[in-house]
Amino acid sequence: MNDKHKRISQLDVMRGAAVVAMVLGHSIDALLSPDIRASELYRLYDFARGFTAPVFLLLSGFAFAAATERRWVDYTRPSVVLMRRFFRVMMLFAIGYALHFPFFSLGKILLNTTPGEYARFYKVDVLQCVAAGVLLLQGMVLVSRSPHRFAATALSAGALVTVMTPIVWNTDFSAFLPRVLTPYLNEQHPSLFPLFPYAAYMFFGAAAGHAYLRAAASGQERFMLKVLLAGGGAAIAAGLTLDLLPLQLYPSHDYWKASPSIILIRTGVVLAVTSLVFSIERISPSLSDNARVLGKSSLLVYAAHIPLIYGSAISPGLAQAVGRTLSLPSTIGLACGVLLLMLALVHLVAFMRENFRRPLRFAQVGLACSLLYMFLTKPY
Q: Quick one: which of 210, 94, 91 has its CA closest to 158?
């Protein structure tokens, strides 16, 4: 494997590590007892867990730049690859909302859903955030017309989202926008991953991806890794400096979610870690292979483990069956069990894809059609 492809494949290794953190984090969130959550150790863990989403989103932006610049012309005009991208985006939206169905019956949703249940259904989770971010990045591609201008636009958009988030955070947009759209902007209505601030990570990742690809194409990859490391350090320093300013620049807001300081610090840490991971010459094959297969199957893992842990319209999950009642050892043991189950699932799918691609495709289509038929026809 040449050096460039080895580095790009490490995106999947990093994404796989983030998948591990995600599965363990959701399991701990659903099962750990309240008395342990009150400890200082848990608060430190919760701070570290806050980097999981920025890793996913920044790497998603990075991967968007890598995929787009390989076939730039095709993504700037009507083409098959552009249509495939839009199809994948629609699939992300569909899966994201389906995971929040109040009932597994279209009739019951239309006739028996309360306003509170609709609000939870409209809640923006990470899949909707990624899908909306991809649409915005694709819009930048169409407007920019060149990779360099695209990167500059993405960087500027990331900076704009960063500085505007505290203002947008406290604005109720329900008077101007439909209730299905307001969760995309802030948490005034139920939302886990609004575009302010989370789109900033995707935009910064796209700009970093462009810079890395340009450097790799000209043989300056190692120099660019040092630039990314320095840029990460600069972002961290900027975030800390903003915290030390004696001026109150923004109205009151949630520091850990909406502060430009924390956005810059998290972006800087992820950029620095990305640079360091890309600089590693050799990773243990067994470790990298498992991380890579998890990274490549992150959507499958997400769609499988969320209902298992938090439940769905079809069945309850561990959060309902067990709840926040377990000790730390029991929680960690069960969380590792969920992780091993997800790892077995992705290896099974990878094996089927390699050796039985057509039967696997028939099974996927059959399952999707069966679930859709049940959802549309199930009586309320």
A: 210
Range of the structural domain that residue 329 is part of: 3-377
Residue position matching structure tokens 């201008």: 149
pLDDT of res. 246: 81
Distances (CA, A) of 278 to 69, 271, 286, 351: 19, 11, 18, 27
Cis amide prior to 197 (ω within 30 degrees): yes
Q: Is the pLDDT of residue 4 over 60?
A: no
Tally of CB atoms within 10 A around 151: 23
Which residue blocks in the chain are alpha helix, DSSP H?
3-31, 34-37, 40-49, 52-70, 80-98, 106-112, 115-122, 126-144, 147-169, 195-217, 221-244, 255-258, 260-279, 285-296, 298-310, 318-321, 328-355, 357-377
In whole angstroms, give the CA distance from residue 365 to residue 159.
41
CA distance 114 to 129: 24
Quick one: 119 exposed, middle or buried, by C-beta within 10 A (0-12, 13-18, 19+)? middle
Which residues touch 248 (CB under 8 Å, ≥6 apart)?
A: none
Q: Is 12 exposed, middle or buried (0-12, 13-18, 19+ CB in 10 A)?
A: buried
Domain count, the chain: 1
Residues 39-82: tens digit of each pLDDT: 999 999 999 999 999 999 999 999 999 999 999 999 999 999 99
Note the pLDDT tens digit of each residue in 128-160: 999 999 999 999 999 998 999 999 999 999 999
Query: Which one-letter amino acid corresponds to residue 95?
Result: I
Tally of residues, the chain: 380
| Measured CA angle at 18 (ends 62, 101), to 5 deg | 95
Provide the pLDDT confidence category of residue 10 given band limits of 50, 70 and 90. Answer: confident
Q: Which of 32, 35, 40, 36 is nearest to 331 (CA)?
A: 32
Lookup: tokens for 265: 């610090």
pTM metric for this prediction: 0.93
